[in-house]
Amino acid sequence: MLIIKDLYKQFGSLIAVNGFNLSITTGETVVLMGPSGCGKSTAIRTINRLVEPDHGSIMLNNSNILAMDPDELREVRKRIGFVFQHFNLIGRLSALENVMLGLVMSGVKRENAKSKATESLIKVGLENHLNHKPDQLSGGQQQRVGIARALAYEPDIMLWDEPTASLDPILVREVLVVMEDLARYRASTMIVVTHELPFALRVADQIVLMDNGKIVEEGEPSQVFVNPVSDIGKKYKELIEYQMNTSAQSLAGKGQLI
Amino acid sequence: MANILTKTRKTFVRTFFSSSFNRDIVMLMIVSIAIGSSLASLVAMSANSYFSETISTLVGEYGEFDLLINVREEMKENGNVQIEKVIEQVFPGGKLKEGPTLNGLTSFLVGLPAQYKTKQTYETMDSIFGSVPGRSGISIMTEPRITLRAVPDGAKSTIIEQIMHIDGVLFAFRDGGSVTVIIQSLDKSSYVNEEIKKLLGQYHTIDIAFPVGGEPENSMRLGEQIANAIQEEKAAGYAQSVSVDSKSNDMVYMVSSMIEMKRFLTAFATKAKITPVTGVSFIIGDSIAFQGTAPNALITGVPLDATNILVKVTAVEGDGSAEGMVIQGDGMQVASSQGYRVINSVIGDPVGTATFQNPRNELGKALKETGDLVLQIPKIAQNAQNMAGVANNALNNYSGSITAVEQTLSSLASAGTTIQSATSGLANLDTSAIQLQLTNSSHAVGSLVNTLQIVRVLNPDVSSSVNELTATQQNLTNLQNTLGALDNVAADARQARSAIDNIVVNGNSMVANLRAFDVNGARQTLTEAGTGITQLQQFNTPLVAAQLQYLATAVPNLKDEEISRSIALMDQFIAGQVIPSQRIQIMTKSSITTEFAEPIISGVVGHNNFSLYTSAVGIIEPDPRGEVMVILTQVKAILAGMVSLIATIIFLTLDHTAVMTVIRRKRIVNKMPQAKGWKRMLQGIKNTFTVPECLYGMGIGALILTTTFVLSGGGIPYLPWIGVPFLGAAMGLLLANNSEKISPISVDEVTAGEALGLSFDEVMREIVIPNGRPGLLQTLNRRKMKFK
């Protein structure tokens, strides 16, 4: 159970997140959407304190992440997988080592770590690229390494920060397939920041629309996209109808396209 | 307090050193400083060694040799042998090395044992090595030393004496035209140098320059007079004529003596005062002839001969009269006052008449009188001795006499008292009433007698009664007279008493005055006078008188011609000698200005036709070898300093900029809301200095540079020691503000590491440092990396 209350973050004069409140139950997939710069990435990064919020509370199973000391924070981070927009792979390490890194550092024996990392990479279809360095992999492959790295911990929560934004459309699909698999067959909670409307429609249990750092609308896809109350929601509805050449209502619902 | 400190220390150690990366940074610092300082020292020492070796090859190690003897190249074999012999005999244990041959001169370097490095040795070095064949010069090389140039000759002794008192000076001595100061050790060189500078700064010389033709006749004597005159001024305190060195330049003193002798002789030469006839004028140098022992008067056109008196004009007065000196014959021999001009040894026209004044005759007379006086001295002394004896006896009797006087006065006072008691009854007796009664009785008896006389005519029987009455009347008269005498006695007694009182009072006063007289002092004076008289009597007055008589006879015998010839001879000698005459140097305190000295000098010289300048009493000559050594030391320090600087920059750039970048990124990610307007600018400036990466950079920079500097003995010109940490901090600050440009880090990788739950240490060790610039930190980090 993750409960975020009154989260606030300001960069200089820019208020990135303002009064963010969200409650997510275990195994739920929440998709954060909104225009660029609305505070989605900042909001998701505050959850594992990659960005320190100015105030608010983030309760993970009754523990306030924001009140944790560095050691506690490191431990909680190991339970929160994070997939970055730009993959954020360690350039000097191979795909396998990238995945092993966190495990080894958290005290897992090297052999076990290797085994787990290999397993993770196989799950994302990279069994033939274990020893490839990031610069020897395509964008999609790199992102899958990133996903494998996050998965290797077997985290309670997976945070996805626009994982397909840096990929070309062909590579997007291979990542989305992995993501959808995880969403469907893993019990972990997922919070996904993305502009991929079809993906959101298919996998989201809850859609959260943000604008200017605030949540403007939230609810199930069928509610948010079919009967939007916010301007942003309405725009997304129009966009869905335009892109899909059908009504949003007909598309709403998890697993519609599967 | 101790508990707090202990707790703080433990907390710091626990928190700071609990991070393995912090420990790595500490290790890095130690290694950086060790490498930096070693490198700086190595480079500096290498350079120093190279240059020192180069110099040593030419002239030996610093302080190794003391003398450099140049010997003509063709004589160097013999010279070498002789130098060796001298060293063996005079400086056993000394060493000799043949140096380079330049311009036909071979240099031999001589090192003296320590015990022979004395002032006396150095001052006699020329004579010690005087036997070396082909020797063309000897130079002092003893190090460390300081050489003073331009010290006036006369000031050298004073300067050397004062330098010898400076701590660190082994000795100082005259080295040709210079003063050389040998210093105990190189580390005292700077101190001695400064002290000598201070000493030289306390004095200066006032140079008195005279125009050509206006030089003083005896500048040395004049210099001493001026120095004395300045010194007598209260404000001056010190002045010394230093134009010549009285201790080393005997010839100058001889010339000075000859000048004085010339002046003496000139003073006793016969002076001719020549009054020209109308139309004649004289110029200095004219020769005028007078008739001397020649039997006849001079005749125009006749050649001058030895019997004539020849006078040379030495001065011409404003009224045309001339003063001259007899240069042939003697002034006493002049037979005629008529003078004739002499042209080409031929007697010319008469030019005037002369009067001659012979100071020698006057001196002779004075000496004769003095001789006569001297002969009287024994008699005078004897008389004085006698008088002294009499006076001494008088003094011996003086006290007794005064006591006698006192006793007399006391007796007189007693006598006065006696007279007073004896005559006091008489003085109180009223004799006038008795006298009156006696007179009346006498008159009554007389009347009775007259009556009885008449009766007796009548009665002859009463004759006997008349006779008895007459006798009675006579008795009354006698009694009356006796009473009158009694009155006189009383009056005389009173006068005597008064006189005695006066005598006693005056006598006591006189005795008091006489008692005040210092008899012992007078006796002492008399004794001394007696001693003086005794000594006077011991003078060999006959001998003195004889000598005076001899001089009185001899002085007039000195002929003018002899005097003038002697003067001419002296002139010839003096003209061949170099004696400073155009310039007089007075060494005095620096506070004495030319304005202060000018009126004093003018008073002594008698005119203002001179110029005054001030100059230093000496200049410290750079010691080439010492300077080179100092420069080498400085070069060494500068090289060490520069290498330290470079090492610090390298260490900061390669090892610490990555750390600074990480600190910076972490700060920026969580940066606080920015202020606006001027506050923003202020915050920007503040951030430039106080943000964590800047503090880190400044601290590390200051620490590395300062420690490396200190350990390597570095030094940068114009940068004091206190500035070194600031320079290091400035370098760190500069790099901190440019750390991202120098060592950019992949923020994405760092963020990924953080997201994976890696600690700061692990992020640094596995992500940042391996991706950073290759340096010590990377090398040290490598052994702890888990993913190499």
In short:
The complex is a heterodimer of chains A (258) and B (788). Chain A has helices at 40-47, 70-77, 95-105, 110-123, 139-152, 169-185, 197-203, 221-226, 231-244, 248-251; strands spanning 2-11, 14-24, 29-33, 55-60, 63-64, 80-83, 157-161, 189-193, 206-211, 214-219.
Task: Quickly list its features.
heterodimer, A: about 260 residues, six-stranded mixed β-sheet, globular, B: about 800 residues, alpha+beta, four-stranded antiparallel β-sheet, 24 helices, about 60% helix, about 15% strand, flat
Number of strands of chain A: 10
Strand order of the biggest β-sheet of chain B: 10-13-12-11-14-15
Give the rounded overall mean pLDDT of chain B. 81
The gyration radius over C-alpha positions of chain B equals: 57 Å
Low-confidence stretches of chain A: 253-258
Q: Quickly count the helices of chain B.
A: 24
Can you offer a commentary on this structure?
The complex is a heterodimer of chains A (258) and B (788). By secondary structure, chain A is an alpha/beta fold. Helix content of chain A is 40%, strand content 23%. Chain A has helices at 40-47, 70-77, 95-105, 110-123, 139-152, 169-185, 197-203, 221-226, 231-244, 248-251; strands at residues 2-11, 14-24, 29-33, 55-60, 63-64, 80-83, 157-161, 189-193, 206-211, 214-219. In chain A, the strands form 2 sheets. In chain A, strands 6-7-8-3-9-10 form a 6-stranded mixed beta sheet. In chain A, helix 3 runs parallel beside helix 5 (139-152). The two termini of chain B are 47 Å apart. Chain B contains 24 helices and 18 strands. The mean pLDDT of chain B is 81. In chain B, the strands form 4 sheets. Chain B has a 6-stranded antiparallel β-barrel with strand order 10-13-12-11-14-15. A 4-stranded antiparallel beta sheet of chain B has the order 2-3-1-4, covered by helices on one side. Chains A and B meet through helix 2 and helix 3 of A and helix 22 and helix 23 of B.
